[in-house]
């Protein structure tokens, strides 16, 4: 952080500028880091300690799936579209969390439709249509 | 003033606004009653929904939802021994003990009535204090605001955590994240790495959704199959006996509400800390301290009043100085900026009708709590049966869409995800999240006032204490720093 501020110009006629505040913060963070490491070493704590749930593979996958669901949205919404991706993501999560398959699929479709109606139609958020753009033009007016 | 009040009444009594408040009340009750979902999370989730609303319904939705959520947290506390929100944690055991003793009705009645009364107490203080403080603050310059922000940030660490070192680290992380984007004094781009989207800084609402909702969902995902067992008792007439409790413990109610409002007004500390402190105070001054922990109503009166009164208290510094009193008002400040109601003393002069409208909605929300809360208690078993394995994925998608909506691009989702994971990692390692949020919210104002003051005083630090109020605020801040440094010293064996 401090290294990145080296290229910031000072205010005209002053010795300081936009770099001053980040440098103070960078210095303070370094100090906090040193004190925390020092304390950890003195108390003999391990550098990394896993939570009890980390030994249960099902829980680890559940945890990772939350992050994966957001990543899927980031990388596939613009090409595949909000509706198909969300239905599949939600259904997948429900199934992993042991929801009955029929309930999982129906809830995934219903939740996606409600989100599309509320955000996409009512609030006019440009949720990416993706594959839905291939639908006949008459159908799109019911979606957006 | 009278004209502004009449205008405010007109704004609030609009059927659309009342409808939004009622819907938010039901939403708030649901979120509050579901263990693992917090009032702050309710606020973060509401922001994308209220984005296109005018200021009054948008703020009305947040005020009503949070008021309800803080009360609703008491329901699973008594029935499941799991607090619905952290604000109910202080007296969860006490409430559950009462339920075990067959006093669930009285417990629910006391929680409902004293939550509403405590909320009204907090609002009364807000109505009296906020305009008075605004008049005082109108003469503040950048020096006073700098110290005020410094004092607020220091308080956040002092009260919200018992580990000042981790508190400071969290604060510096928040302030550092706030540095991303154009610097507030000269507009020079910092840490943007050529990204146009980062020029406007880290988008605030997706950051909040990440810190408060995603980190909670990450925790929820690993416990999705764990459900508590609801107390089998039937809920009967909940208001029976509440009058007797009030006559016996009215002083506890006033004390709890006062402590709650004061703690709410201190930056960084919200309803949860207010409840813990007032419960401890109640036990210390009780004539029957030995009964605490056995299902005794006295401590519940203090703390359930305190957590709801803290909500009103937190709005005092948020409206007057733009310094949030708790994590909910940290989000509210972002909403106020989005609605062009920049918090500060001038908002009381420029938009008094909007401020009065917030006051009126606060009062309405606390009155509405009685019927809506009663209905929630009656249907509690149904609410508490909502399967978590369906709720977690739906809330996740709501967060993703909400974050997208704030930036109209996946940039919002990226911010949400990164800060969600950072927030989760930090919290798991004992770092408090509140100072990060405060750092993020106050960073720009803090730096702006710091740089302006530096320029005004020509780089001399003496300028920072040249005005009397600034000197007093500065002395208070430095005294707190010194106190915390002493507390941080390693203890000798």
Task: Summarize the structure in words.
- The complex is a heterodimer of chains A (144) and B (493).
- Chain A is mainly alpha-helical and 144 residues long.
- Helix content of chain A is 63%, strand content 0%.
- Chain A is built from 5 helices and no strands.
- In chain A, helix 2 packs antiparallel against helix 3 (82-96) and helix 3 (82-96) runs antiparallel to helix 4 (101-122).
- The two termini of chain A are 44 Å apart.
- The model of chain A has no long low-confidence stretch (mean pLDDT 87).
- With 493 residues, chain B is mostly helical.
- Helices cover 74% and strands 1% of the residues of chain B.
- Chain B has 22 helices and 2 strands.
- Chain B has helices at residues 2-12, 15-33, 39-50, 55-72, 74-80, 92-100, 104-137, 142-160, 164-178, 196-199, 204-221, 242-265, 271-285, 297-321, 327-338, 345-350, 352-378, 380-384, 388-407, 410-428, 434-456, 468-488, and strands at residues 181-182, 189-190.
- In chain B, helix 2 packs across helix 17 and helix 12 (242-265) packs across helix 13 (271-285).
- The N and C termini of chain B lie far apart (62 Å).
DSSP summary: helix tally of chain B: 22
Strand content of chain B: under 5%
- Main β-sheet description of chain B: 2 strands, antiparallel
Instruction: Count the E strands of chain A.
Output: 0
Number of helices of chain A: 5
Run of helices and strands of chain B: HHHHHHHHHEEHHHHHHHHHHHHH
N-C termini distance of chain A: 44 Å
Radius of gyration of chain B: 22 Å
Overall pLDDT confidence of chain A:
87
Q: What's a quick, concise take on this entry?
A:
Chain A has 5 helices and no strands. Chain A is an all-alpha fold.
Quickly list its features.
heterodimer; A: mainly alpha; B: 493 residues; 2 strands
What layout of secondary structure does this protein have?
The complex is a heterodimer of chains A (144) and B (493).
Chain A: H1 20-42, H2 57-80, H3 82-96, H4 101-122, H5 137-143
Helix pairs in contact in A: 2-3, 3-4
Chain B: H1 2-12, H2 15-33, H3 39-50, H4 55-72, H5 74-80, H6 92-100, H7 104-137, H8 142-160, H9 164-178, E1 181-182, E2 189-190, H10 196-199, H11 204-221, H12 242-265, H13 271-285, H14 297-321, H15 327-338, H16 345-350, H17 352-378, H18 380-384, H19 388-407, H20 410-428, H21 434-456, H22 468-488
Antiparallel strand pairs in B: 1-2
Helix pairs in contact in B: 1-17, 2-4, 2-17, 3-4, 3-11, 3-15, 3-19, 4-14, 4-15, 4-17, 5-6, 5-7, 7-12, 7-14, 7-17, 8-9, 8-21, 8-22, 9-21, 11-19, 11-20, 12-13, 12-14, 13-14, 14-15, 15-21, 19-20
């Amino acid at each position: 952080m401090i290294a990145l501020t080296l290229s910031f110009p000072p205010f005209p006629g002053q010795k300081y500028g936009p770099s001053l505040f980040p440098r103070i913060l960078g210095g303070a963070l370094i100090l906090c880091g040193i004190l925390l490491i020092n304390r950890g070493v003195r108390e003999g704590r391990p550098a990394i300690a896993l939570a009890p749930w980390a030994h249960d593979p099902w829980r680890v996958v559940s945890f990772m799936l939350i992050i994966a669901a957001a990543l899927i949205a980031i990388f596939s919404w613009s090409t595949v579209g909000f509706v198909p991706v969300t239905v599949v993501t939600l259904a997948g999560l429900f199934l992993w969390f042991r929801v009955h398959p029929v309930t999982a699929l129906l809830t995934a479709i219903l939740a996606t439709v409600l989100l599309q109606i509320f955000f996409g139609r009512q609030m006019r958020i440009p949720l990416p249509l993706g594959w839905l753009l291939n639908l006949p033009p008459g159908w799109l007016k019911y979606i957006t | 003033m009278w004209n502004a009040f009449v205008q405010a009444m007109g704004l609030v009594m609009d059927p659309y606004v009342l409808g939004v408040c009622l819907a938010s009340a039901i939403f708030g009750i649901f979120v509050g009653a579901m263990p693992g979902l917090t009032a702050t999370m309710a606020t973060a989730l509401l922001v994308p929904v209220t984005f296109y609303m005018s200021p009054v319904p948008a703020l009305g939705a947040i005020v009503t939802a949070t008021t309800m959520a803080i009360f609703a947290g008491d329901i699973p506390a008594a029935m499941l021994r799991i607090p619905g929100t952290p604000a109910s944690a202080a007296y969860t055991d006490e409430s559950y003990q009462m339920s075990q003793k067959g006093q669930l009705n009285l417990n629910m009645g006391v929680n409902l009535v004293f939550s509403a009364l405590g909320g009204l107490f907090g609002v009364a203080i807000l109505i009296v204090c906020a305009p008075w403080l605004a008049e005082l603050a109108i003469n503040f310059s950048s020096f006073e605001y700098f110290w005020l922000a410094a004092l607020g940030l220091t308080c956040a660490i002092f009260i919200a955590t018992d580990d000042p070192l981790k508190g400071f680290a969290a604060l510096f992380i928040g302030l550092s994240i706030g540095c991303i984007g154009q610097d507030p004094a000269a507009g020079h781009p910092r840490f943007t790495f050529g990204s146009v989207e980062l020029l406007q800084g880290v988008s605030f609402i997706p950051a909040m959704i990440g810190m408060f909702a995603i980190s909670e969902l990450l925790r929820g995902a690993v416990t999705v199959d764990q459900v508590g067992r609801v107390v089998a008792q039937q809920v009967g007439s909940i208001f029976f006996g509440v009058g007797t409790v009030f006559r016996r413990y009215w002083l506890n109610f006033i004390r709890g509400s006062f402590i709650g409002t004061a703690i709410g007004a201190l930056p960084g500390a919200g309803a949860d800390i207010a409840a813990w402190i007032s419960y401890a105070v109640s036990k210390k001054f009780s004539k029957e301290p030995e009964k605490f922990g056995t299902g005794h109503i006295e401590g519940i009166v203090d703390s359930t009043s305190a957590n709801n009164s803290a909500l009103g208290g937190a709005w005092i510094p948020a409206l007057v100085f733009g310094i949030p009193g708790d994590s909910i008002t940290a989000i509210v400040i972002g909403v106020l900026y989005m609605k062009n109601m920049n918090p500060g003393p001038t908002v009381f002069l420029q938009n008094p009708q909007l401020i009065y409208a917030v006051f009126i909605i606060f009062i309405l929300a606390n009155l509405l709590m009685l019927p809506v809360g009663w209905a929630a208690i009656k249907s509690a078993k149904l609410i508490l049966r909502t399967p978590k394995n369906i709720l977690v994925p739906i809330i996740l998608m709501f967060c993703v869409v909400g974050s997208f909506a704030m930036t109209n691009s996946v940039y919002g989702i990226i911010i949400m995800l990164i800060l969600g994971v950072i927030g989760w990692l930090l919290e798991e390692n004992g770092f408090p999240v509140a100072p990060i949020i405060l750092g993020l919210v106050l960073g720009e104002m803090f730096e702006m006032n710091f740089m302006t003051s530096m320029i005004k005083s020509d780089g001399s630090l003496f300028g920072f204490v040249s005005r009397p109020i600034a000197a007093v605020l500065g002395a208070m801040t430095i005294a707190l720093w010194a106190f915390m440094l002493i507390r941080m010293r390693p203890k000798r064996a």
